[in-house]
Amino acid sequence: MPEERGFNMRLSMLFVCLLPAVALAQTQANTGQIEGTVTDPAGAAIAAAKVRLRNVETNLARETATNAAGLYRAALLPIGNYEVTVEAPGFALYRQTGIELSTGQVLTVNVRMALSATQQEITVTADAALVETAQTTTSRAVNEIDIENLPNLSRSELNFAFLQPFINGNRPREYEAPRLDIGGLARRVNYQVDGFQNSAAQQKSYRVIIFSTAALQETQISSLGANAETGRTGGGVVNNIIRSGTNQFRGQASYWTSRKVWNARPFGAREGIKPSGNVWVGAIGGPIRKDRLFFFASYEASRRAFPQSLGFTSDAAKAAAARLGFTGEEIDVLPSRFNPQLWLAKFDWRPNTKHSFSLRANTFRELFAARDPGGLTVLSSSNGALFNEAAVAFAWTASFNPTTVTEFRWQLADRFSRRRPVVEPGPNTPPRTVVSGSATFGYPSGLTANREKIVEWSGNVTKQFSRHQFKGGFNVVLSPLNFEDQLIPTFTFGGLTASGPRGAVSAVDQYLYTIERRIDPATNRPYTYTQLSLSFGERLLRYHQVYYGMYAQDSWRPKPNVTINYGLRWETQVPPEVDATAPHALSRQFPVDKANFAPRFGVAWAPRGSEKTAVRFTYGLHFDSPQSNYFRDSLVNNGQRQVSITISGTTAGAPVYPNYPTTAAGLTIVRPSITVIDPTLTWMYVHQSQLSIQRQLTRNTAMTVTGAFTKGTKIPLVQNVNLAPAVGTLPDGRNLYSAARIDPQFNNINMITAGGNSNYAGLGVNLNRRWRRGVQFNLSYTWSHALDNAPESGISGGSEQPQDTYNRRAEYGNSLADVRHVLNGSAVLLPQFKNRVLNNNQYAFFFFARSGSTFDVRSGTDLNRDSVNNDRPYFFGRNTGKGPSSYQFDFRYSRIIPLGKDRRRLSFSAEAANILNHPVPDSTNAFINRTYGTGDQPIATFRDILAWHEMRRIQMGLRFDF
Question: What total of structural domains would you count in the chain?
């Protein structure tokens, strides 16, 4: 660790020194760029023409000039509606309005000047060219039209991520993040807000801060092919853009309600279990001082419930629960009620034409009652969750001269969550008790807590020179993390087989006979439990890690119809400090990978200078930083921080239920299993390449066809490296192991190592129409095939470890993220008729369809005795199971009542999720019954879906816009 601390110090000093020189590691993160070429009537370039770009909503203006080739570029422009004016001696003034700039866009506005002798001024009202011929990457900004009008009962902006090719996953039912798979890689996504980091360090599929859709102006979705500005992920980026105030006061207030009588019951649930809810939303923005100081604020509150049946649905299950003393509400419904509140305030200040500042503060608070674990756990032993999230973010942008723009950003984000019992345990609450196959009751489990912070510094500088646009930037993210585990005893009653004069005893009878203190005729001793499991040790864990990233790139226009972007990114991560007293040597070190240099290249070509066609090619190396849970598992499971003890109920001197020892003194400690990190562990990296052709079909409609390929290398996985050499083979050739261990001090040594590889090939087709004449739509289709040999534990649910720890080749097969066909579409329609009575009726829909997800078939037992208790059956390849295909259609109808000639209007809306009431299975790897059994034919419950997405849910709302 001294070497790591020294490395950390040197890096910190380096970034401090660089701070004045470069100022966001994600440039264009909440901005865009407008560029173009200015020519005379004959097509010759006009040098030194004065170009002025003005945001018509805030009056922000940026001035620049054309170079010798007639090229101008204006980078880091706040998104919005722009006016472009061009002046040159001897030519008429040119003015173009109606240019809509979205996040990450590189709009081309070419200007052909007219001689002043023929005209004094030319005014054009038209948007920029639909095809971004100078944009080397392929991304999409979900705009205000979609965010405000598409059906979105979950209130999660991440639903819009599915509109981009090469993205798949499960849609959220509320504010939670969907589990996105991008480019065949499970859960590899970098969540951002205005370019600030928002992915949780401990597990990347989660966000640190949640935002209301009322606060969002756009959501930028980049699946593959990002340039050197983007790091930390081998997949894609989802970036939310927060609204800002303008020179006009604008806002909205709305109320939404969903009643049980309107909704369908969840698939498989009993009658009477239906979702319901109410949502209140408000937002307002405007000027504090015209052209200088603006504000925006939003608020959202919900009271919603997604009740789910507990597992006591059959008469036999209810009868067994009643014998244990549980009836009525205890075995009826898991209410799943939650009441989030979201606040946000943002201020934008522009003291002069060269500097602008932005300050944002926001909170999210949610009490989620009775959400886990469901199944056969009674209600009083269930738990809910409390979430507290808050963030403060600051940004400064400076335009020192027409060719130099710089940014600096800082944020502090804090996320705390704690699991809370539905019923507070009292002195008479029994310890956690599992009566196998019948019920779990007593002290609730899973009452953990964790806290994660983000402290981020980032910046960049953009410099234009001739045909080049150079950028350099850095990103530093400090992530302090706190964890609190729950260590409670668990009694298990598994039932008894027939013995001597006593027949078989069910688990329920074993429990009842035990508490009644009956004598077992087979042993002439009192009945007792099957097993008592205890854990002792430290419950609290605190550590931090630091991420560093730097990049440099150049956007070069060698010809007016060719743009080349090339760059290099470097990044590393300083891990937590280790426990120097851990019993195993590998627990006393964490590797630091410093050799993460990622070249990026992209080219955009407009054949024959056409503004209607763009051909793009990108290639890049993308490193994926290790998630913090790897370090947490190693620190907690190091053989001494926490110890586990298992006591058989028949052991002499075993405690009598419900009593249990409160210390480990005098007890036999089970030989521990530990988690270590391979000392040679390096970052996973992904080769990403794609070739796309975009063609404008009509003035406002374009189609893009993209072929994509990714190759993942050094994917982290867990393998037991303490198994002694194999003692034989199974019928299908897998190694068979004994109970012997290489290091007898430990049972399993689960090493996190970089041993996985993946391959992905995909074809994406996207048809998009921008908002014109009351119509906007997006249609996206993806065919793909994902293969890998990397079952990643903790990434996609379930116990994902190699079936044969020493045979990587046996694991090569379909990826858990392999879904062959995905079709998604959305549309917002506001038809206009001559008959005014028929006007102001708006229709919007969201459509999702996909083929079945992959899952790994399991036997339900440890066939090769390697301590992985769910091996595949004989002769089954990895991930050969396929879940059912699914589709969902969401719809919204709105009746709009104008209240004047300005923005004031009242609208009534009715919307439905899954309006066709089609059953949609949840994440199949975690929620499908994968157990095939050990016979030639599968057991009866194989492939049963254990959890489903919502059935038809309807809500109605009233909204006032001004």
Answer: 2
